Amino acid sequence: MEFTLEFERPIIELRKRIESLREIERTSGTDLSAAIVQLQTQAEKLQTQIFSALTPWQQAQLSRHPARPYTLDYIAGLFTDWTELHGDRAGHDDQSIVCGLARFGDTPIAVIGHQKGRNTKDNLFRNFGMPRPEGYRKALRIMELADRFGLPVITFIDTPGAYPGIDAEVRGQAEAIARNIMEMATYKVPVICCVIGEGGSGGALAIGVGNRVLMLENAIYSVISPEGCAAILWRDRAEGPAAAAALRITAADCMQFGVVDELIEEPPGGAHRDPDATIASVGAVLRRHLDELKTMSAALLPEDRYQRFRKLGVFVEEALQTSVAVVERP
Fold first, then answer.
1. Taking a C-beta distance cutoff of 8 angstroms, is the pair 221, 203 a contact?
2. Ranges 20-34, 165-179, 183-197, 295-309: which has the least confidence
3. CB atoms < 10 A from the CB of 216, how many?
4. Burial code of 138-175, b = ≥16 C-beta within 10 A, e = fewer?
5. Exposure pattern of 277-309 as b/e (b: 16+ CB <10 Å)?
6. Which CATH architecture fits 60-310?
7. What is the pLDDT of residue 319?
8. What is the largest CA-CA distance in the chain?
9. The whole model's pTM is what?
């Protein structure tokens, strides 16, 4: 059964009516082409109207759509000679992060990304895309391997956040995230990060320190999920839509604040409506940025990455005006 978001329902209903008319046309031989064209035009106009005015909460819902392409879909669609590498060399292998070596065109690269599941069984196997510390240590191992052998690194970010369970904390979740952020800043190879769905807090940043940070049009990037923020501020997760608006989590907001370097357009109706076109668009943008970064020297790449993140943040200086009241004694 197709997963449908509430605001998509009017469009889906029109498409079902179009399919019904086509079926009648096939079975009865009646010419219904005029009615079909009219409904198609109506569906396209409605889709444009809805998707041109999405709220931050609706974009958050889109970023989580289970039919969006995930990391393994991008790997299958963009890279060749994929070889997945497992384990953190400390006894664990976290399936919520996939890592490996591949070719991007003629360029050998390392690929790392969060991986969610599309059903309950797969989501339990992938821990809903929420890595434990061993997942980040596995990613760190592959990135260090790439740096040692001069391989560019491409990461795909799509996580609600790092797993917050007690077992993850016991095994050093915060240290694993902090170490990844620190080490990624030093690599002498090109690093490109792409937010393809949810960019959740430190869980995203642990594989998100790149020379270029890209973001799909309906992805989100935030220090906390809207529901988590609502639970803290309003003590009610139902206030998620209000929190989403306040957090400024959308791709457009991130682009405005300089958090990301480029937005990648999604097909009409979102990435889940045409995964192949989405993957092709991401591939074209990755190729362009990788070609640019390959012209930079190994010594310059860490400095470029450092300066990129140093420039984040906006502040306004205003002169402090004070007034002094002089009171005469009687």
1. no
2. 20-34
3. 27
4. bbbbbbeebbeeebbbbbbbbbbbbbeeeebeebbbee
5. ebbebbbebbeebbeebeeeeeeebbeebeebe
6. Alpha-Beta Complex (3.90)
7. 67
8. 105
9. 0.88
- Report phi then psi at 222, rounded to 5: -155, 155
Place of tokens 């949810």: 198
Residue with the two structure tokens 């399936």: 95
**What tokens were used for 294?**
């390959």
% of the chain surpassing 70 pLDDT: 95
Report the candidate in 301, 269, 284 with the shortest Cα–Cα distance to residue 8: 269
Q: Tell me the pLDDT band of 327, cut-offs 50, 70 and 90.
A: low
| pLDDT per residue as tens digits for the range 283-325 | 999 999 999 999 999 999 999 999 999 988 766 777 666 555 5
Q: In a 3-state reduction of DSSP, which class is residue 102?
A: strand
Strand partners, 85: 99
